[in-house]
Amino acid sequence: MPQNPDCELYDNVGRDADQIAAARYGIATRGDLLRWARRDAEAFLAEHPLPDEPLPSPDLAPYLAALAAAQTPAEASAVTQRLLDAAEPILRAVSDYPIPPKPTYAPTVHLTASATGRSL
Question: 3-class SS at 89?
Answer without folding.
Answer: helix
